[in-house]
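Changelog excerpt

This revision adds worked examples to the README so contributors can see how folded entries look when concatenated. The first example is reproduced verbatim below.
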Amino acid sequence: MTPTPSPLILVTGAAGKVGRAFIARLLGEQAFAHWRVRALCHQRPLPAHERIESVFGAIQDRAAVLQAVAGVTHVLHLATSKETPDDVMDVSVKGLFWLLEACRASPTFRQFILIGGDAAVGHFHYPHPVPVVETQPHSAYPGCYALSKVLEETMLQQYYVQYGLNGCCLRAPWILEKDDLRFHLSFGPDVFGAPRWCDLVGAEAAAEHARRGSIPVLLDPAGAGLLRNFVHVDDLVGAILAAIDEPRARHQLMNVCMDEPVDYLRLGDYLARTRGCPLVPIRERYHSTWLDNSKARFLLRWRPQYDLERLVDAAWAYERAPDDPRRIWYPG
């Protein structure tokens, strides 16, 4: 009898935040001890490992994708382009198309997992008077990144319809790790992500706020604390592992996020109380959103481990090693 080959999962965007965390966790868990990883790398190679095979190429190159998919049983698609109009259609549309085409023709393929984003439903750019569930229509905010998230979800769903492809989409909000939250709340030019508080308050005020270690408190147009969705990379990785070969995940779109969004007012109060940080209220045009993760919790039997307090405590406790500088690989 011919032995069944070990599962082989292709990870695109393998050198990024989620890819690195996912691969480390999969390699370390006993349940996946017989699994192997193939990483499709473009600019950044992965460290050598006996269970990791790295292949190099651009995801928009059909030949490179065919080589990467050959013999794989699972695909975790993480590669993205952010606000880079020159690349976004090649990476997010053509790249996903070649991946799906290769998967549907492969005799070894079993499951496709796409990591989507809440940019597909407008993030905090539009009013959401009720919790955002998976049946809400797409509503990309201006820019090419949000549009690409809509196109990805739509293309994968059509492969379910046209070919019965086995897949699922885990829709994540902003993914945080390490000290990301601390730098998100920085008034300096080292601010991570948006809004850029230093631009909103002006250079002179920003410099004084940064000197004092002040924390921005984002308010909505009515002056209430803004609610914004996050997920810690460890929780997202947990959801990905739970989705692998889970029959209940087949053809499903699931929001994967914290049980409650972060309230900037509560966040500021917690930092003021526990770390003595001065607070700077900033009223902006953004709207509160509540991404509902009930479907993922039900279908995957998954529970996020991070709440607001743990998110803050982990970010403030993190100390970077000299060989772990902060890098932002993608604009936007």
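The second example, added in the same revision:
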Amino acid sequence: MTIGTTTALNLIQGALRKINSYQSGEPIATPDELDSLDTLNDLLDSLSTDKQFIFGSQENILTWTAQQRLYKIGNPVMTLLGLAPFAGTLTAGSPVITGVTNFPAQLVAGQNAAYTVGSGSILTDVQGLIPANTTVLSFNAGANTITMSANAIGNSAGFDQVSYTVPGDFPIPRPLRITHGFTRFNALDFTLDVYETETQYTEFLYKAQPGPWPTVAWYNNTMPYGLLNVYQTPGNSAECHLFTDTLLQNLTLTSVLVMPQGYARSLKLLLARELWLEYMGASQIPSMLEKLSREAADYIKALNAKPAAVAKYDRELVRGNRPDGGWITHGGYR
């Protein structure tokens, strides 16, 4: 299979074949598809916590807000905040949702680019009529209408149920780790130390200390928003670059996974091991499946392993006196 064309359904089909639950070409029953997809997403969520399964770093280009030192990072769906979806009517070729009921007070209007500073809430619907990464451009609570950044691709059958996100200050997917960062100002890049711990950050006596841009940061990996605490407080809206681990994100059956070589095989085998417990009950997982899944996982971890850092020493500390004829004047002590 060509790299970049693996879908969630391809992974599920491969995993079910490996446990002899379905044969090649046999259609998978809808309940089995949905249950397997749920298991796959749980697996991906778990693998995202393992640094050695993360294959890349995502550069997020954001903007500091002048005089703000605490930033909420994330774009959680409203259910994580204890909020309910709303209902409305969609019309093919129109960006307007009409007849909105249960109008959400937390809905955010903004730019049409998802996951960027100033973007609106991202919308998804039950009937699948809203294109991916469609955001809210504007709304009129009095008229019960919401204007989207894209047109609906069909007419809703009655009311459609719509979910939405509530963007934070940095509305990127909430990262598990921030690995590097810098501020770009006048075409120059100034390093942001993102490795501060909670203890180190609390040692700053005056946390509201102003500066042209932050120099250090402590990332508090809370839910549903991560909290980025910075020092010094930025004095302008300079460009901020944050590098985060690529998350193995939630998928739909038709989602395309763009992954390096080796990931498709590893995910199929790891998913097969998970599905064995669901389909075969208490029977022991075959030793060959255990062996192959462990082998495939080890290949991935070896690919992503970082080489040990090479120690560097001051030349004055390690050079010998043999080539230095001046040692006779100082006896080797200087």
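Reviewer comment on example two: DSSP finds seven helices and 17 strands in the chain. The CA atoms of residues 41 and 250 lie 5 Å apart.
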